[in-house]
Amino acid sequence: MIGFGTVGQGIASVLMRKDLGLTITAIADSRSGLMRDDGVDLAGVLERKRGGFVVGDVGISPMDVVKRGEYDLLVEVSPTNIQTAEPAATFIREAISRGKHVVSSNKGPIALHLKELRRAALSHGVQLRYEATVCGAIPIMHVLEEGLRGNSVKSLHGVLNGTSNFILTRMAEEGLTYDQALAEAREMGVAEADPTYDVKGIDAAIKLVILSNTIWETDLRLEDVVVTGIDQITPDAIRLSEDEDATIRLIAEAIPERGICRVTPRLIPRNHPLVVNGTLNAITLTTDLAGALTFVGKGAGSIETASAVIGDILHIKERYARGA
Ligand code: HSE
């Protein structure tokens, strides 16, 4: 496992309390690394991390683990970099070239290099999965590839950023100003390291790129998405919308046959299925066979994101692992 922040620690704590038949043979973060072929002592590592100590040996880097570690599957949960996708993209490429499966929660490499990474995985006969990159706990990728198999997806609409949704909810419910609501969101730890990515719609646009490229096998880039954030929304605008039994939500929308791909604040009726509160995410897929389906769930959080990562790991273990 590369990265031992919120998501990595969530995965470790789940594996400590549930026997899922998985062994973590190495962990590395930006400060140190640890390799134990018979399994890392997760309780010890968690205790050291929470105490502010290094988790392992400062002489072992993430790249050492990726290149020399003994593992079947790389769990790549290091911090995201949306400009360069590095160093995560290099870790993923390296693991694939060693014939290892990869599960990532990292938006950078998937948004920027999905086609290339998929091709590499295919040519090395390994799986690349990234459920946790969008909509946290909602298993939307599994739904798309299994439950909705045989459907054509016509459009998608979603609330893909928990921080913006939390801010809009607090402004409507409590009459907070944008700045007050943003301060609360930051305290909750859902916001990105740089919250401008959240409030300017960029995080939602990144997720829209990942979903669109997955569903329609396109090569959409972040620059192709028309983006407006919520940072100009005033308490007055929200109050006026509430008077009309409507509210404002940051909606990500892709309708390929109309050339629409955008993230914008929208006025929507309060009883609309996409009006979810707080840090929840929601996504509506409109399909030819199943009609419209809306999924709602936690869009972030340590254990919730771990749920998505673990779902991917077990999917690979049960279907593709040696001897499965
Ligand atoms: N900052 C993101 C959000 C976290 O607010 O939705 C999950 O990607």
- Fourth-tier CATH superfamily name of the largest domain: Dihydrodipicolinate Reductase, domain 2
Coarse shape: globular
CATH topology of the largest domain, which one? Dihydrodipicolinate Reductase, domain 2
Mean pLDDT over the residues: 96
Task: Enumerate how many helices there are, as a single number.
Answer: 12
Tell me the name of the CATH class of the largest domain: Alpha Beta
Detailed description of the structure:
41% of the residues lie in helices and 19% in strands. A hairpin with a 4-residue loop joins strand 10 (280-287) and strand 11 (292-298). It has a 6-stranded mixed sheet. It has a 3-stranded parallel sheet with strand order 3-4-5, sandwiched between helices. 45% of the residues are buried. The chain has 2 domains: 6-136 and 302-321, 3-Layer(aba) Sandwich (Rossmann fold); 144-298, Dihydrodipicolinate Reductase, domain 2. The chain is an alpha/beta fold and 324 residues long. The model has no long low-confidence stretch (mean pLDDT 96). It binds L-homoserine. L-homoserine is lined by residues 161-163, 190-192, 198, 203, 299-300. Residues 161-163, 190-192, 198, 203, 299-300 line the site of L-homoserine.
Keywords:
about 325 residues; globular; 6-stranded mixed β-sheet; about 40% helix; Rossmann fold; binds L-homoserine; 2 domains; Dihydrodipicolinate Reductase, domain 2
What is this entry, summarized?
With 324 residues, the protein is of the alpha/beta class. The protein is built from twelve helices and eleven strands.
